[in-house]
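Changelog note: in this version the structure field was regenerated for every chain. One regenerated record is shown below for reference.
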Amino acid sequence: MGTKVFRIIIGIIIGCALLVGIYFILPGKYHYRIKEFLQGMFNKNYKAVCRELKTKTVPGYPNVTFDTLMKKGTEGSAWTADELAVDKAGNGTYQVYADGYNVDLDLEHVMNDDTTQSYSRAHVRLVFNVDYYEKKLTSIKLVKIKVEQDNYVPSDKYYSEILEGLVERAVGK
């Protein structure tokens, strides 16, 4: 009887190890969706921060929310968060990531000439720094947009072109 229980325990441990291993080697499209689901189940602050951030409008596009931008402008969108400086009550600074996949973008004059940088079926990640105090977002800053391996920051002239491309894809403007 003792060896049967031992075998069951070892089987459970091996099964869990396989699931964790598979989770870490999954492509981002699936990895971030699972992470979003797990964070939503186990972290109420994450859920509140992301829910409120999704309802905020995209700068320069008054009728487009970030949720609409990611759901309709990309495929397989996922919202995840990391705590940067958060107290036990959940107040503090979070870094929120909005990931989307299968985005086609053309950025003109990337190399300061007449060339165009094209992205086909690319991964787009919006990175926000969010201050959350007393169950309200007090500050939201879109700090970077990452397209595949390239980073675009607010001072970058392609930053607004990327947002415009995503909005165009989301709402057809």
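Spot check on this record: The radius of gyration is 20 Å. Helices lie at 2-25, 28-42, 44-54, 66-73, 157-171.
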